[in-house]
Structure formats: structure tokens, C-alpha cells
Amino acid sequence: NDETNKAVKVAVAKGDGIGPEIMDATLRILEAAGANIEPEYIEVGEQVYLSGNSAGITQDTWEIINRNKIILKAPITTPQGKGYKSLNVTMRKSLGLFANVRPVSALHPYVETNFPNMDVVVIRENEEDLYAGIEHQQTQDVVQCLKLITRPGCEKIVRYAFEYAKVYGRKKVTCMVKDNIMKLTDGLFHQVFKEIALEYPDIQNETQIIDIGAARLAANPQNYDVVVTSNLYGDIISDIVAEIAGSVGMAGSANIGTNVAMFEAIHGSAPDIAGENMANPSGLINAAVSMLAHVGQSLTADTIKNAWLATIEEGYHTADIYKEGVSKRKVSTSEFAEQVISRLGRTP
Amino acid sequence: NDETNKAVKVAVAKGDGIGPEIMDATLRILEAAGANIEPEYIEVGEQVYLSGNSAGITQDTWEIINRNKIILKAPITTPQGKGYKSLNVTMRKSLGLFANVRPVSALHPYVETNFPNMDVVVIRENEEDLYAGIEHQQTQDVVQCLKLITRPGCEKIVRYAFEYAKVYGRKKVTCMVKDNIMKLTDGLFHQVFKEIALEYPDIQNETQIIDIGAARLAANPQNYDVVVTSNLYGDIISDIVAEIAGSVGMAGSANIGTNVAMFEAIHGSAPDIAGENMANPSGLINAAVSMLAHVGQSLTADTIKNAWLATIEEGYHTADIYKEGVSKRKVSTSEFAEQVISRLGRTP
Ligand SMILES: CC(C)[C@H](C(=O)O)[C@@H](O)C(=O)O
Ligand SMILES: CC(C)[C@H](C(=O)O)[C@@H](O)C(=O)O
């Protein structure tokens, strides 16, 4: 390996549904590229839930995670029913992964989109909001969920967004809130945004109400750069941005905390196509690229990213983005990985 | 007038910002078309707020509304600051306007859109959810907002959506929720949707998680027909649908209750262009068309709708939808109204 001597230990969750297939494809690419990582497999998700563990994760697994501090995670399936808590949310909250970073850019004309120039990073608050998981039943007919917003939570995510913009040379940060209705909660997010924006005079800032903001983002994504918003809005707009760029299957994400970081695709476990070797592993590949950059293996990250780009640009496409006349060949999950591997070393 | 003898009394709010201009345009068209209505003007919004009334509406106005039972309302401006309660929300809640109906269809090629075949109706729950307005500050740094969902609330809106589909010959109703996270609140909405769907075996039904649902709606709106969802999601996706069809300035909405109904554009008061005679009055015109149909003046409603369509199709466009090569002439708010009036009586 070109960058470090000691292998970085990574807790790897193969996930459910299409998880194992896309993880297999991703790990093969990492290995072929010489990523200096040492996977330690963890068992989370469906099987753990169904064994009677309502959180989908055991104490042993928490220990592995806390030891390794880096997680690469495929999507998991949470069984339906009130008894099961979302593992994604539990991990984000328990590990203090406060920032969910979701970059999306168009790959036009290789992947069709109406928005060839879009290049947006959604930076989503990842611990608070309606995701705090505080729900209760008041009467048989009345239920409530608490939307929790704190000043430290807002400060962490907003500062992260501006620092991200600074480090990556981005020009503008847009805040999206609904503070005409939620004056205290969304009002606090907006207030903190205004305060912190003052510390970054070289970066433009703007605030939009989430309804019209999401609408303009969906209609003209090329007008956006970095978008910072609370948990639920970020969940919705990051899927929108990924889907209108071509496919939600292409986007990776980084869940960043002070001590631990977790990297995953933004899509779900797609049980309907599981086991068919047809899923697009690109989301997880991109997540793994972010992971390598995060642990200081930027050269390997770039090598994989370039090979992945070349594969897409040369038209080797999984079914979700395959298009007659644009694509060259429809490939399976594993063939896609082979195509990427065969292009390692290409420069863009 | 062709339909009723007794004029229908309508409480008319001219609104703030661009409100008075687009209301003036709309009322001129209604009058020219022979709509049998008798406006009674009400004073709500900015001036009322600034006179020291934190709700933006006086007791006298409530009496006029309760007497007339039909409201045509232009957008209003709520002054910034925690002391002012949203008038929209107050009116919807106080008057029991439980269903917010927002139809959007493409007018391609007259108004440019990537989605020439889209034709979606968003039916948004209008009284509950985070809009219930229950917010509190727990410590200086911790604030909360309560998301309230009730079974009767879910039943009313879901039944309304299926009845709407039945009456208007629509084929499918899609429910959007986030019940993988909010198992009690969004879970209840989903549960009620499943129950009521059984009563309408001739109408297809499906449920999507709001993140991927909103993403697919933004990427492929032509795959949707009627969408039913809770208040905040409906707020966001209705703006998305309107904007990707061409402009949020085109869509009207009906707020339907058991005794009272209120008709309004879905856009805001746009203070930045107020007084310039350039706003698009189409949203309010379409709202007025819904109002006429609601009070039994369907022939007049159709007459106006057809004249409006002809105006758009013949390329007389306000600035927001004006496009070189597509539009014929850029018109002001008042000129647009004149163009519509000159086409009354046209058939499509
Ligand atoms: C699976 C689900 C809990 C998760 C979320 O809502 O955050 C997913 O949609 C995501 O965006 O990562
Ligand atoms: C003005 C605002 C309170 C309102 C809402 O959030 O409902 C508006 O966005 C709408 O969609 O009618």
C-alpha cells in the first residue's frame, strides 16, 4: 500500500437484502486497489432482530465498533412491527454521528439526467429532530412524536457544513427550515445558521423555507451547492437529489462523529431484488471511497473513484441506470465490480 | 348567470404583497365570466398583525367567515418574530378545513416542463402533524415541537382521498409516510390507509416511504395520480409537484371542511415583486375555478378554466413562465387578466 503501514481496522456489516452482494463487490474493489484496511465482520440487522434483540445489534458488536471506530455498512432490513427500533438511527445516535454527508453530482451524458450540471452536497443533521425516537400513544386514537432540536446540535451541524464548504472550496451554503411554522425549533436552527454564517464571510449563505426550497432544488438543482438542514428534511431532499441525478442507487454517504465514522449507501436493502446479482453497488463503492479519504488513504480513494467513473462513462451499467442507446452493456453486480477492477489505475 | 339565482356570498381576503394585484385580476375575470358571487371583503394578515393582533384576524372577520362559509384568499405576509401565529394554520385549524387539495398538471409545450404527462393531485392533511403548533422551550438550549396524529384525522383525510379518486375517475392513491421511523404516528396514518383502501377495491393503492416517495415523485411524476399524506410532507411535495410542472405560481388549492371551504394559491405573498404588476395570478385563478365548482357553478368554472388554458396555450405568459421561443408575449398581471377575459367562451 502506498500510504500507511498499519492497516486500518474497519468494522464491516454485510447487511440484508442486496447488502451482501454489494458489499462483496465493494470489498473486492478495495482489495484489488490495495486499500490498506483490515475488515472485521459484524453481525447487525435482520437476523439479530429476529433472534429476539429489539435493537438489531449486540453488546459484542458495540465493542468491535468502539474498538475499530470506522464502519462500512451495507443496508439492513428492519422487520416490520412496533417492537423493532431502527438500527440506522440507533447507531447514529449512540455513536454520536452528528453529520450525514451526502454528495451527489450528475454523470451526464453517461447516466441520463435532466440536470447535467448538478453538484450538490446535502449535509444532514443526524441525531435529533423527529428521529430522536420519542413517540407515545396518549389515547387509543391519539399519538405523538416529539421533534427535538438543541442549540449544540444545530451548532455542530451548521459549523460542519461551513467547514466542509471551506475545505472543499464550495461557494455557498443553503439552509432549509420551516421556521414560519415551527418558530422555536426550526427557528433555532435558522438562528444558529445566521450566527455561524457570519464567521465565514467568504462563503455565501442563504435560507429557504423547506417547501419552496425542496421544490426549487428538485426543479433547478444546479443552483445549489452545499445544503444544510435538519434530519427529516435532509432524509427527503438527499433522496430527491440522488434520484434526479440518475438513481438513488449511486449515492454514498458518510456519517461523521467525533470518535467514530460510518460509511453507507443512501438506499435501502431492496429485498425485492436480493440475491439476483443485479443491484448497483455504486452507492456503497462511493461510501467506501469517502471512507478511504477519511482515514487518510486519499490516493487509493482517487484510484477507485477514477476507475468507477471510467466504468460508468464507458457504459457498463447495472439495470437501474441501463438505458438503450446510452449504455454499452448491462452488467450484473459482480461484473460491474470486475469492470471497475479492470480500470484501476486509469486517470480521468 | 346561468346556474343559480341567489348570489353566493364569498369572504374575500385581498392579502399582502402580490395579494391585492392577483386578487384584482381574479375578481375581474370572475365578474366578466358572470360568476354569481357577492364578495364581502375581509381584513386579515399583515396590517391586522401589526395593529397588535397576534393572530392576524379579528372577531368581526371570524363572524363574516362563519356567515359566508366560502373564502377566497390571497397570500398574506406574517411578520417575522415568535409573537405572530400563522394565519393560514389558524384558519385551517379553527375552521376544521381538514383537506388541502392541490391538483397540478403539465401544460406542455406551452409551459416548459421535463414532465409533459404529469397530472397529480396532492391531498394533504390540513389540521394535525407538526402544524398543530405545539412548541415549547425546555431549557435555553432545548426546544421541542409536537407532531400530533389522530385516528379520526387520518380517517377523514384518507377517506377524502379515495372519495376524490372515485368522483374524479382517478385510478390510484399513493400514501406517503415515514413509518419505518415514526412507528406510532406515521404508523397510524399508514394503518388507516390500509383499512380504508379495502373499501375501494376498484382504486389501486400503494404506500411509499416519504424519502424515496418524494424522490420518485420528483423524478417521475407521471407515475403518480392521487397522493395522500400528512400535513408537512404534503406541504413539501405539493410545492415540488407544482414547481416541476412549470411554476409554483400556477397551482391553486382548496381547503375543504365540513362547513366552510377556503380557496387560495399555493404560493406565498412574494413581497419582493409586490406592486410591480408582474406576478402570475394563475394560482389564485385556479383556486377560484375550484371554488366555483364547489358552490355548484361548474359551467362558469369551466368557462374560466378554458379561457385561462387558451391564454396560456397562446403564449401570453407572465414573467415567471416566460420563455423566449415558447412564449408569444410577456404580459403583466393585469394584461394577463385581460387576455383571459378576451377568451371567455372559447372551448378547448
Ligand atoms: C433506513 C432509514 C432509517 C434511513 C433514514 O431515514 O435515515 C434511510 O432512509 C437513510 O436516509 O439513511
Ligand atoms: C404559508 C405557510 C404557512 C403555508 C403552509 O406551510 O402550509 C404554505 O406553505 C402552504 O403550503 O399553504
Automatic annotation (TrEMBL), chains A, B:
The task this protein performs is described as: Catalyzes the oxidative decarboxylation of isocitrate to 2-oxoglutarate and carbon dioxide with the concomitant reduction of NADP(+).
Name of the protein in its database record = Isocitrate dehydrogenase [NADP]
Molecular-function GO terms, alphabetical: isocitrate dehydrogenase (NAD+) activity; isocitrate dehydrogenase (NADP+) activity; magnesium ion binding; NAD binding
Q: Which domain of life is it from?
A: Bacteria
Q: Which family does it belong to?
A: Belongs to the isocitrate and isopropylmalate dehydrogenases family.
What catalytic activity is recorded?
Answer: D-threo-isocitrate + NADP(+) = 2-oxoglutarate + CO2 + NADPH
What Enzyme Commission number(s) appear in the record? 1.1.1.42
> How does this polypeptide assemble, per the annotation?
Homodimer.
Q: Using the record's annotation, list all stretches that form the Isopropylmalate dehydrogenase-like domain.
A: 9-340
Might you name a Gene Ontology BP term for this protein? glyoxylate cycle
Reply yes or no: does the keyword ATP-binding apply: no
Q: Which residues of the full protein are shown?
A: 12 to 359 of 504
The alphabetized UniProt keywords are: Glyoxylate bypass, Magnesium, Manganese, Metal-binding, NADP, Oxidoreductase, Tricarboxylic acid cycle
Organism phylogeny: Bacteria, Pseudomonadati, Bacteroidota, Flavobacteriia, Flavobacteriales
Which of the seven top EC classes does this enzyme belong to? oxidoreductase
